[in-house]
Each structure stands twice: as C-alpha cells, then as structure tokens.
Amino acid sequence: MKALFFPSFLCLSQESSRAMSMARKALPTARTRCDWIPVTSTGMRKGKALPASWTAGLFAKLVLCIVLLLAPLPAFAVNPDEILPDATQEHRAREISSQLRCMVCQNQSIDDSNADLARDLRLLVRERIKDGDSDGQVIDYVVSRYGEFVLLKPRLNARTIILWAMPVLLLLIGGLSLLAVLRKRPAQRTVAALTAEEQARIEDLLKK
Amino acid sequence: MIIEIGHYALVLALATALIVSVMPMIGARRGDMAMMTLATTGSLALFALVLMSFGALTWAYVVSDFSVVNVWENSHSLMPLIYKFSGVWGNHEGSMMLWLLILCLFSAMVALFGRNLPETLKANVLAVQALIASAFLFFILLTSNPFLRLDPAPAEGQDLNPVLQDLGLAIHPPLLYLGYVGFSVCFSFAVAALIEGRIDAAWARWVRPWTLAAWTFLTAGIAMGSYWAYYELGWGGWWFWDPVENASFMPWLAGTALLHSALVMEKREALKIWTVLLAIITFSLSLLGTFLVRSGVLTSVHSFATDPTRGIFILCILAIFIGGAFTLFAWRAPSLKSGGLFAPISREGALVLNNLILTVATGTVLTGTLYPLVLETLTGEKISVGAPFFNMTFGLLMLPLLVAVPFGPLLAWKRGDLLGALQRLYLVAGLSLVAGLVFFYIYNGGPILSIFGLALGFWGMFGAVADLWYRGNFGKVKLGVAFRRLSGLPRSTFGTALAHFGLGVTVLGIFAATTFGTETVTEMKPGASVDAGGYTLTFDGMREAAGPNYTESRGHFTVKRGSVSVAETWSSKRLYTARRMPTTEAGILSFGASQLYVSLGDPMADGGIVVRIWWKPFILCIWGGALVMMFAGFVSLSDRRLRVGAPSRKAKAAKVVKPGLEAAE
Q1: Handedness of CA B68, B73, B76, B81 (dihedral sign)
Q2: Cα separation of B607 and B242, whole Å?
Q3: CB contact under 8 A, B359 and A174
Q4: Would you say residue A190 has pLDDT above 60?
Q5: Is the CB of residue B98 less than 8 Å from the CB of residue B50?
Q6: What residues does B574 pair with on adjacent strands?
Q7: Cβ of A13 and B393 within 8 Å?
Q8: With CB atoms 3.0 to 4.6 Å apart as the test, which of B98, B401, B500, B524 could cross-link to B464 if both were Cys?
Q9: What is the pLDDT of residue B374?
Q10: Which residue ranges make up each domain of chain A?
C-alpha cells in the first residue's frame, strides 16, 4: 500500500533509486540457497559501488523507473503464504521484521514493505526462526549480511552514542541550567537592589 | 496573458517586499512616521500582489493551460475540478507559492489587526516578515518559477500524482502551512523585540493570539495529514516517524512549548529571554522543515517534488534567517532585562517543566531525524533511525509530561500547593485507573501494562474535567452558583481544559488502537468470510469499474454482526491511466470510534485474492482528540482579552495594579 507504489514513483530521488538499482542487480543471484536467501550483501553495502555522480546515473534511473512502472505489481507486505504455522514464531517474526529496514524503500520496515527484497528478508527471518535462532541471533545474522543500516533502531556504539545520549544530555543541560537559574535568582535580586542604591547615589553625586 | 500578469505580479511583489523590509526599519530607527506606516500599506499591497499571482496560477490549472510547464507536469484535463484547484499546491512550485501566500496573508493580518501595537514594533515586525517574503520570492523566481511556458503547448497534461488526488490534499497542505508559516509572526515579533531591545508582558500578550492561531492550524494540519496517510496509503498506519512528518511535528512541539512559556511571561514577566529564544527556534524548525521537504535531502515517502539545487538555495535562506536571528539573540539578549522570580512548585514551575520536556522531545526528534544524514556526510557510514527509536525515546519523554498535565492548571501562580493538588487529583487518579481496568477487561487482550497506558488517557481527560470542576467549586456550592462561576471564567480557561482533554483522548486512542487492534492477512475467494473485531466480513466478489482518470477493480465486502448485516464496503485497486500508476483505496467502515479497514492485495492464481483486514478499536480517538485540541485553540482565540486586543503598554502598567482580575484566571 504505502509500500505498494511509493518506491516506483519516488525513484527519481537519488537515494531510493540508488538502493533500488542495487537491489535489482542483487536479486537474480539472490536465489542461490533454499531458493530465497539474498545475496551476500557486502557488495550492496559498499559506498564505492554507488554511482560517482548521480547525474550520470540519471538515465539509468529513468530506464529503471520505466521498467519498474511497467513491471508486474510487486507483492504486498506479509503475504498469506509467508505466514508461519506456529503463532508464537509468527509473532516473533513480525516483531523482528518491524525492526528491520527495507533497504530499497524510503522509510519502511520490511514488515510494511512490498518490495521483493523485503519479502526475501521476511522469509529469511522466518527461516532463521524456524531453525531455532533466538531473536538476537536472527538480527545479528541480518546485520552481518546487510550492515547496521538495516536496523531501524541503531545499536549503541561509538558512532551512535550521541544519538542515544542526546535526550539524556538535553535533560541534564536543561535541568541543570534551571537549577542554576533558581539558585541565582535571590542573589540577583540583592545585586539589583544594590545597583539601584548606587544609581541613586550616582544621581545625587551628579546633581551636586 | 493572465499567466504573464501573474508572473509580473510576482516580480512586483519582490520589489514591494524589498521596500517593505528596509524602509520601515529605517523609519523605526529615525522615528519617521511616514516610513513606518509604509509597513502597513506595503504589507497589504504585497499580499494583494501575491494573491493575484497565485490566482493566475490557479486559473491556469482550472482551464488546464498546458502551455504552462507546471500545469502540464501536474494536471490533466479530465481531472475533477476540485483536484485542479488543489493540484496547484500538489507540486514543488505551487506549494512554495502557497507558502508565500500564507506568509503574506499573516503579514497583512498583522498590518490590519495590529492597530494597537506601538508603531515602531509594528514597523519592525512587518519589515522582518517582508524580509522572509523577499527571500522566498527570490527563491521562487530564480529556482522554482511556476509561470514558465512550453512551446508548442502539449495537448494533454501528465496528471497529478494519483496519491495526491484526494480531498485530503485539498485541505492538508493549506492547514499545515497556516500553522508552519503562522509561527513566522512569532519569529518576527521576537526579532523585532530584539532589535528594539525591549520586551515585556505586553509583548507576550500581543504574540499570544498569533502563536495560538498557528498552533491551532498546525494541530489540525498534522492530524489531517495523519488521517490522510492512514486511509490513502492503505496499510492502516497513522504515524510513521517519517522525516517529513517529523519536520511538521518539531515546530508543533516547540510551538506547544512556546504557547505555554508565553503564558508565564504574560502573567509573571518571567522566562522572557527563553520565550524569545523559543519563538525563534519554533520558526527555525518550520524553515528547517521546509528545507527538508523541499530539498529532498532526506529520503522519505513524501518527497514527491524535490530538486537538490533548490535545496542549496533554501539552505542559504535557512542559514541567513536562523543564523541571523541567533546572532541577534546572542548580541541583544543579555541586554534584555530578565525579571520575575518563581518557586519550583507553582503554575509557572509546572509550565517550566512542560517546556523542559517538550524542548528535550523536540531536540530528540531533531537529532533522530538529522543524525543519519550528518553521520553519512561526516563518516560515509549509513545508519537508519526509524520508528522503533522514536517510539522508545519520545514515548519515554512523554510519559512524565502526560502524568504532569492535570497538575499544572490546579497549581496556583507564584506559590502552588502540590499536596493540595494531589488531594484534589486522588479521585481522578483512582477513576482513571478503574476506567483503564474496565476498558482492558471489556476489550481484553494485549499486555497488562497497557492498562496504565489507557489509564493515562483517562487521566488526561478526567484531569481536565476536574480542573473545571474545582474552578466552578462544584460540590461545595449550589449547582447554579457553580455554573455561574464557571460561565464567568475566561474562555482561555476552557481552552486549556479542552486542549488537555483532547490530549487525553488522543493518548487513549493511541493505546487502545495499538493494544487491542488485530490484523488478518488471508487469501479470500468470493463467498469466504473472516472474523475481525466481533464482526464477520464476507467477500462477495470483484468488479471492474472506471473513474474519470483511472480504472479500478473493486472488491465488495459485506459486514455482519452475528447474523445481521450491518454494513458493506468497497475496497479497490486503482490504475491511474495517465501515469500508469497503481494505488489502493482501502475500504474503511466506522463503528463508533472504531474502524474496520479492508485493503486488497494481489490476486492469486486460483481465483482468490489476498485481503488484509485490520480491526482498529478507538482509532478515531487519535484524530478526534486532535480535533478537540483544535477546537480548544479556537475557543482560546475567542477569549475577550484577545478579541479586544492587547492593552497598550501604559494600560498594561495600570492593569498590574488590579490583582483581582489576574487572580480570577
């Protein structure tokens, strides 16, 4: 739905089409194991693989857009055939899926996306769960293939420390400066009173 | 010809805006009345010119003049008339025109209704407004001119993006912009105050109606956009923490904080410098939002009209205005006299807590929105910051605020009695918890912890009622006396209570919909049935149909409760012919505040079709609460004190001596 068509009509924006084109290239080779496991993602994630200038890639993008528009409609988000028979496993799969980014989409989890890659990932998550992986193991596995970019809630590390610390930091700064203001206030008042007296004295002196 | 007139009017508007942004400011310095009054007439003329230009563009859309590039790109002769109107702002150029039009509308309103403003302040405010207008006029004329022609003119247009062909688009952007851009007035007032180096309670009173109006429209605009996304995108989500949504949400958060801090300034002369800073921050976030949306710098589902070269231009505007305002602030703020003491436990103390949390929340959303962008620019590393991050951080921040909301209005100014407020709210807390429990019992399902979430919604609602209850002194005096007391209260009191009540309704809706909602994804053949939310949905079959500029295949569903047929709906998949672009139109049925949401998926080989059915209990409360908040804004705006207009500075000084009037508030 949201998923359904946004990618195609948005693909003029550099970001999405870049990712999309990679995914398109990636997919044919993707069905190597068990018919669905996506390719080694390392190639996909490398910055160098991106077109050096996006104007150069514009034509390719345009073609891609047309291809995508004329292509048969992609599948929806979770389809009946993907759903696991075990309800708890399926529930876990949904939970995990909502944490993983659909890499070819703009701002969607694989759970909401219709893209082929999202479907592949959903199946991958379910296959891993069926194989007895814990939630953490599934996520680790996906991250090892696709990199941190795939996580909608980034992990705490040196790169994301500022992101995670920001709310706490802001609260601390705000709270401390409030305390400072509250403490300073009475002092300020006495200072103000003094200056008023001084002011009067100065005026007196000036009059003389 | 009309197009050229519109184009010319836009150029004239630029000249006017430049004059209005310079002359009155000089006049205010020199005390030259003639130069200062130029601001009023100039702002009105500016609005007239921009209106004329906007009208010309609208005309081109209505008559489908495809010799205009912008019309050709975004319209189609077969499009329904309403979408020809709304299509004007359904693209980059047109939406910038709308932005400008609303900016000039606000200037004109300040010019008209600001009669009791001191001349210098009014001149400075209008000059700053005109300065913003000239920046955007430059932007439109140089990078996003909607009046460019095509030769030869094509016979048919390329159609408006189908997702935008909806009544939602007709209403959502104008409302959003009225809010977004409305904060420009607060910004201009803040900058003018900094230029004059003078700021007092009267200033807060003057800014109040503008803040309130902008906030009201922004609330409505965000709620409208959320509902539009909910029904148009076809998967039942209503908030995605999409960067573009965040872009409109951040000014709302900051604006809400501004609304509350201006109150402290007006009543207690405290938080002056902070309020000025907040006014600058709020509009800066609006500008930032415009930049994020218009430049396409962020990848998001909303970036339907983007161009990076324009991004750099807006970035410059952003840098000049935000940088300029903050520099001015750093330079002049220390010279502003800060006044007003307050005890931590008091009405103003509660409002400061509100400001602290809202500002931190704004900062968190801002960080989350920009972090991936900054990180990628600096290190080349890509990370995602999505809904799970925001739900966690923002949610945690909002909890204490939502708990604190009912306390605020019950605390007195200067020195509040927390114990007294607690005693008054004991009953409310108990009632909320019971209501949460009952609710949870009836709609059983979901984690036990959600009882507290539901109770939090009731807490907000009951707390607002309790506020009015204690103000009327119900239960202690005769009913008639209490009602008379209540009717004697200023309307802004009712505005406060209503807005807080609406917030409670929204919170309740959020928790109820997420806790008790169900989702069914299944393949259905004609005649098949599915149960959802106590209703039985029967799929009757598919049918082909055609609209003015699309074809669709629609599925018919009958909804039964027990064996009684209660409703029916169509859910369809459309193909817009001009762009060969498919969309889904969900079938949505409302039962009270709850909804059944039916969306079609892919047809299967064996004649069945994938159907997604969501049961969304009390989902309408989410937007209903926002509507109540909007209504509360209007109630507050109609307050006599705002209608009559702010007192002049002398009158204000006299008014301080009459504590009786203030105490009643």
Answers
A1: negative
A2: 36
A3: yes
A4: no
A5: no
A6: B552, B583
A7: no
A8: B500
A9: 86
A10: 2-150, 157-208
Q: Which residue of A has its CA nearest to B380?
A: A47
Q: Which two tokens stand for residue B309?
A: 């070269």
Predicted pLDDT of residue B176: 92
Task: Please judge whether B301 and A107 are an interchain contact, meaning their C-beta atoms are less than 8 angstroms apart.
Answer: yes
Residues in A 14-53 with any Cβ partner in B closer than 8 A: 14-16, 45, 47
Q: Quickly tell me which residue has 């979901």 as its tokens.
A: B446
Least confident of B156-165, B215-224, B501-510: B156-165
Choice between B305 and B479, residue whose per-residue pLDDT is larger:
B479
Mean pLDDT (whole number) for A74-78 = 54
Q: CA of A15: which chain B residue's CA is closest? A: B299
User: Smallest CA–CA separation between A73 and chain B, in Å?
Assistant: 8
Q: Of chain A residues 117-146, which have a CB less than 8 A from chain B?
A: none
Q: Is A142 exposed, middle or buried (0-12, 13-18, 19+ CB in 10 A)?
A: buried
What whole-number percentage of chain B has pLDDT above 90? 48
pLDDT digits (tens, 9 = 90+) for B178-229: 998 999 999 999 999 999 888 888 888 889 899 999 999 999 999 998 998 8
B478-515 core/surface letters (b: 16 or more CB in 10 A; e: else): eeeebeeebeeebbbbbbbbbbbbbbbbbbbbbbbbeb
Q: What is the pLDDT of residue B294?
A: 78
Domain ranges (residues) in chain B:
1-161, 166-343, 410-516, 520-616
Chain B residue numbers with beta carbons less than 8 Å from the beta carbon of A70 are 580
Q: Residue B298: pLDDT band by 50, 70, 90 thresholds?
A: low
Closest CA to B349 of B264, B420, B273: B264
DSSP class of residue B319 equals I
Is it true that domain B1-161 has CATH number 1.20.120?
yes
Fold that domain A2-150 belongs to in CATH: Helicase, Ruva Protein; domain 3 (1.10.8)
Phi and psi torsions of B253, nearest 5°: -60, -50
Chain B nearest-CA distance from A30, in A, is 22
| Contact flag A178-B356 (C-beta cutoff 8 Å) | yes
Q: Which residue has the tokens 């010309």?
A: B56
Greater confidence (B48 vs B334) lies with B48
Rg, chain B, Cα only: 27
Contact B392 A148 (CB under 8 A): no
Tokens of B111: 């010019």
Residue B116: DSSP 8-state:
T
Q: What global pTM score does this model have?
A: 0.84
The burial of B283, by beta-carbon neighbours within 10 Å (0-12 exposed, 13-18 middle, 19 or more buried), is given as buried
Please indicate if any CB of chain A lies within 8 Å of the CB of B304.
yes
DSSP structure string for B418-467? HHHHHHHHHHHHHHHHHHHHHHHHHT--S-TTHHHHHHHHHHHHHHHHHH
Worst-scoring range by mean pLDDT, A50-64, B376-390, B475-489? A50-64
Restricting to B residues 595-614, those with a Cβ less than 8 Å away from any Cβ of A are 599, 601-602, 610, 612
Distance of CA A16 to the CA centre of its chain: 13
Query: Do B382 and A147 lie within an 8 Å CB cutoff?
Result: yes
Average pLDDT over residues B63-70: 91
State the Cα–Cα distance between residues A71 and A116, nearest whole angstrom: 12
pLDDT computed for residue A9 by the predictor: 32
Q: Are B60 and B2 in contact (CB under 8 A)?
A: yes
State mean pLDDT over B563-575: 88
Compare CB distances from A10 to B303, B360, B375 and report the shortest one's residue: B303
